[in-house]
């Protein structure tokens, strides 16, 4: 088939350039195609201007005013996140995670009452992410300064996650701290955020000492 004809069939004729612009922006979200974006736009068109404005303001406020916790680097409205500021949490245990999604997933299990440390990713040479791009030195400083007794490596069981765990363990070698990993109830190669809460919670409870 002629490529020009294919492109013609694939093209969408929007009745308004404003709608097209909104669809193009929404379709930049992960997992959102042009059809899904169009459904969102049509839904917004049915809302009042006030409701649509609230959505826009919420997104702008989130992006411009969000802070990162000075202790664990979780997102926060203040200098310290709600978890770090909670006096009832176990201050001697740190759960190391990749990003905010993993904090939310683990918190939903109600099986971890300690602190967190958000690395901001995992070591991935293929994607140009090295140790210097992550909050690794900050973690080591916390372990030394806060008299941490246990560090739980709650990273996804992928090659990148395992590499990061190994690197972190080497960095903390010689420190008086127990290093453990979540048990392998999480499928090898799986992403932590997609694990069900029961499996993830059990993995936290039945964590095992990490051996290099």
Write structural notes for this entry.
This protein is α/β, with parallel strands linked by helices. The chain has 2 domains: 3-65, Orthogonal Bundle (Helicase, Ruva Protein, domain 3), CATH 1.10.8; 80-209, 3-Layer(aba) Sandwich (Dna Topoisomerase Vi A Subunit, Chain: A, domain 2), CATH 3.40.1360.10. The chain contains 8 helices and 7 strands. The strands form 2 sheets. A 5-stranded mixed β-sheet has the order 4-3-5-6-7. The longest helix has 17 residues, at 49-65. The protein is elongated, with a radius of gyration of 22 Å. The model is unreliable at 1-10 (pLDDT under 50).
Question: Helices, strands, pairings?
Answer:
Blueprint: H1 3-10, H2 17-26, H3 34-46, H4 49-65, E1 67-68, E2 75-76, E3 90-97, H5 100-107, E4 114-118, H6 136-145, E5 150-153, H7 159-171, E6 178-181, H8 197-205, E7 208-209
Parallel strand pairs: 3-4, 3-5, 5-6
Antiparallel strand pairs: 1-2, 6-7
List keywords for this structure.
single chain, 212 residues, alpha/beta, Helicase, Ruva Protein, domain 3, Dna Topoisomerase Vi A Subunit, Chain: A, domain 2, two-stranded antiparallel sheet, disordered N terminus
What is the alpha-carbon Rg in Å? Answer: 22 Å
Output the CATH class name of the largest domain.
Answer: Alpha Beta
Structure classification: alpha/beta
Given as residue ranges, the uncertain stretches (5+ residues, pLDDT < 50) are 1-10
User: In CATH terms, what is the architecture of the largest domain?
Assistant: 3-Layer(aba) Sandwich
Number of domains: 2
Give the overall form: elongated
Individual helix count: 8
The percentage helix is 40-55%
How many DSSP-defined strands? 7
Mean pLDDT: 86
| CATH fold node name of the largest domain | Dna Topoisomerase Vi A Subunit, Chain: A, domain 2
The major pleated sheet works out as: 5 strands, mixed
What's the order of the H and E elements? HHHHEEEHEHEHEHE
Alpha-carbon distance between the termini?
56 Å
- Spatial arrangement of strands, main beta sheet: 4-3-5-6-7
Kindly estimate the percentage of residues that lie in beta strands according to DSSP: 5-15%
